[in-house]
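Q: How would the structure tokens look for this protein?
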Amino acid sequence: LSVALCAGAMCCAASSAASLHHDYCVIGAGPSGLQMAYFLQRAGRDYVVFERGHAPGSFFALYPRHRKLISINKQYTGKSNSEFNLRHDWNSLLSHDRRLLFRRYSRDFFPHADAMVRYLEDFAALLELQVQYNTAIIHVTLDADPQAWNGHYFVLTDQNRQKYKCSSLLVATGTWVPNVVNFPGSEYVEGYETVSINPEDFAGQTVLILGRGNSAFETAENILGVTNFIHMVSRSRVRLSWATHYVGDLRAINNGLLDTYQLKSLDGLLEGDLEDLAIVKDKKGKLHITLRYYLENRNTSAGIDSITLPQDELDNFATRAPYDRVIRCLGWKFDFAIYNRSLRLMPGKGNKNKYPQIKPNYESRGTRGLFVLGTASHSVDFRKSAGGFIHGFRYTARAVHRLLENRHHGVPWPSTVYPITQLTNSIIKRVNEASGLYQMFSVLADIILLKENATAFEYLEEYPIGVLAELETQTGRKAVNGLFVIIMEYGRNFSGADKDVFYYNRAVGEAQHAWQSNFLHPVIYYYKRLPTEREMRLCPPDWPLPRPDAIHHIVEDFLTDWTAPNAHILPLRRFLENCLGTDLRNFFAESCFLFAFTRQKLPPFCQQGYIRMQGLVGTRRLQGHAMEAGLLENYTVTGFAGDRLLSSHEGSQDQDHTMITRQDHTMPVRPLQHVVNAKDE
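A: Here is the predicted structure in token form.
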């Protein structure tokens, strides 16, 4: 017996020794897995990506079945700013390599899925990412160790029983398990993942589609012109993306069936709980829709003639006509099967049950060190923002990487310190070009941390607002003197399946009504101190953040160009000044010179510029421009009349008068009573 035990221990030790260790293990080489791999590689971290397929992006090799992506690929925006252009490029991953922009792989506004497959292959190859292909992880468990980063290691086992030990686990597998509803007769239903995509196979047939998402309408669009008619049934009403402002809802490219339904061309939409349905097949192979309770206590094998159908009691029952085919298009869910119970990776609640439960920092609620990336992390912003799609999760993956860099390697969240005079400019620049703020509206925010006495500020980009209360521990930055939070928002009551987003007077144009803006626009929250976790928990459900000390909406703009001096910049600057109790205007040297003699405290612009001999050196052209714009009076000295100075408008034409034109605005020569303040810009 002792020999047997010893042998077992030796086997265990050998197995442990054979385990391969990495600091970071990424499961899945789809877009989110490759995006995280890029950031880990750029940081010089020890990582590996496991991919069960022979190439990255295996999901896109099959889906969408009809091969047209619904993520836009806008070639032209009229601007050369690469950050701005990412606002309208929903397919590219983030990288330093300009060759890896998706517009180089397709010119189609809605690209072919094969272009995405090629793009992901090149992304992994050109950047030399550490991807281990043909490796299917079939089991994940924990190995407790107090010396590990998180108090345990993650032990992964592949299809060849090879084990891998990881300090941190990043799950990027997406949602790929088809949603299936079981009801009597569901064995007659074809799945979206296997149904024919050849329209001729449906010629002259009557089809019922279960589901009402883009996959359902995509399938209907493909066969719309060859079927007798198509019916579509789901438990919820159709949600149009232009009304909900959620890109996962029905897109216009797939909604042809709505036309044929509302214009009475035989096709139609129905609402009902799929679990209440039942399908009965007759001798001719036709499929009849009935309700589950009609089949209770009945022998369905006895034949259709002995089964009561709804039309037997209600002769105008909507689905009384038999169908040739029933197709299931109900989307996908996360695969929980490979995770041991010790990880406590649980499904979400309600309509989020297809995703794992995670915190706002994308870390599992049950296990420290396990982060979920990509589509599977969409529970954080489901039906609110773009975190389930490439143009959203490319930014959340970067945010997770920055959180990990601070937690495990002591690298604080990237930031830049500016003098307070640059506050207005910094905000205007970001809201006009930042793509992360724009795509992940109401989820990622720019954070401005004020320095003591508001003389400077520290700017952090695209931080997850769900963990705002933990900002100091998550970023390694201090927020002791107050902060501004900049996010993008739609109007409170402008989004919803039942909303008319095309109503008259839907837009706001006046700055004083900016708080009523409906379309996506910047909102600035001001806090004198960092909100607490309790305040975050008690935040109203329709508010992304707790009640601030002050709030400012920059009025919506038809061109999404928030650079108008009067409508956008001036109200913002005055809001910032009111919060800080300071003057954020820019001044000419004359004004700063006057303030130095007439005020106890100079404005920050004069303190940080004029007094330190910084700023533009005056020239004839600059002075002339200022006078033409009405910013300065023309007090240029042109000569002398006896012992009296002549201004330009009263100077003599005598050629003997000496021209004295001041070239340096920092050294005024005229009397103080002639110096005027720069007008409010």
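Confidence is low (pLDDT under 50) at residues 1-17, 647-681.

Residues 237 and 271 are 7 Å apart (CA to CA).

Upvote if useful.
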